[in-house]
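Help needed: design a sequence for this.
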């Protein structure tokens, strides 16, 4: 009976993740790897107890979920080279993070050319003042709840612009920068998480509006880079549509299953943070981590 109940439960949450009937079904689409693992565990128990019908059903459930994340299959974790300089670095610093020593260490070791810090508070800025002083070019604006989003660069940021989108006027940062002799359009985004119906609708409206901006600008000869905590997993339908229409690709695609959130409960780990780039642009050394005291891991790469 317990195995039957578990099978029905896993089948329901698997199917609900594909549905738009209720707003919170969107969240059920996040945890495909976890559903697959749970179904495999139940399948093993079914074999042990001789319940072969339930075994077959759970294997099918596992395959359905694994197919959903087929481009992000788990693989052996690659330990980040913390002493390697990086071109781009993105981190949600977490507004409640008061222990910034780890963040200071990783920033000193990676020494990124351009970095994005989300949920930056006044306290963070004071503690990171000396380190941030080596970035003379900055684009920053308040977001919500007493924190800001901040794009920092060692190279000149040209044509800087901040636009606001969605019902909550969530900002999108935009600048152009020359990196290793090549000009890029850099965007920084941090939409709201889908934690309630209003924020769910806000997130989708935000993506719908910035999709037009990015699609238009990506038609230029200048390649586009978009960094941020998107509060979306890369297999969500609205996110794949966003990538296709904007001519972008996720840099974690084909890199394995990269967990960026939540740091403190890795069993539910999902790829929530992204660095997106125009199709055809080359990059390497994509790395996640280490922990910097936030509930998110940092994400970095080299162009």
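Sure. Designed sequence:
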């Amino acid at each position: 009976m317990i195995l039957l109940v578990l099978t029905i439960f896993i089948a329901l949450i698997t199917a609900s993740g594909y549905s738009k009937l209720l707003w919170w079904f969107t969240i059920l689409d996040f945890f495909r790897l976890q559903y697959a693992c749970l179904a495999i565990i139940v399948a093993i128990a079914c074999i042990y107890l001789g319940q072969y019908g339930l075994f077959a059903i759970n294997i099918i459930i596992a395959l359905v979920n694994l197919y959903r994340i087929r481009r992000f299959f788990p693989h052996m974790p690659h330990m980040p080279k913390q002493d390697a300089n990086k071109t781009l670095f993105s981190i949600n610093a977490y507004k409640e993070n008061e222990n910034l020593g780890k963040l200071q260490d990783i920033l000193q070791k990676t020494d990124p050319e351009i970095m994005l810090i989300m949920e930056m508070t006044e306290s963070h800025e004071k503690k990171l003042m000396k380190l941030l002083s080596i970035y003379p070019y900055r684009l920053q604006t308040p977001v919500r709840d007493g924190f800001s989003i901040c794009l920092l660069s060692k190279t000149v940021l040209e044509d800087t612009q901040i636009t606001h989108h969605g019902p909550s006027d969530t900002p999108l940062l935009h600048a152009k920068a020359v990196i290793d002799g090549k000009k890029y359009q850099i965007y920084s985004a941090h939409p709201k998480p889908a934690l309630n119906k209003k924020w769910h609708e806000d997130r989708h409206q935000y993506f719908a509006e910035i999709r037009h901006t990015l699609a238009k600008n990506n038609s230029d000869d200048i390649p586009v880079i978009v960094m941020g905590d998107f509060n979306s997993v890369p297999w969500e339908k609205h996110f794949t549509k966003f990538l296709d229409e904007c001519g972008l690709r996720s840099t974690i695609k084909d890199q394995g299953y990269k967990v960026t959130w939540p740091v403190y409960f890795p069993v539910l780990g999902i790829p929530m943070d992204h660095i997106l780039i125009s199709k055809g642009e080359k990059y390497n050394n994509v790395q996640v981590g280490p922990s910097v005291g936030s509930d998110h891991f940092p994400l970095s790469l080299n162009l």
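The mean pLDDT is 90.
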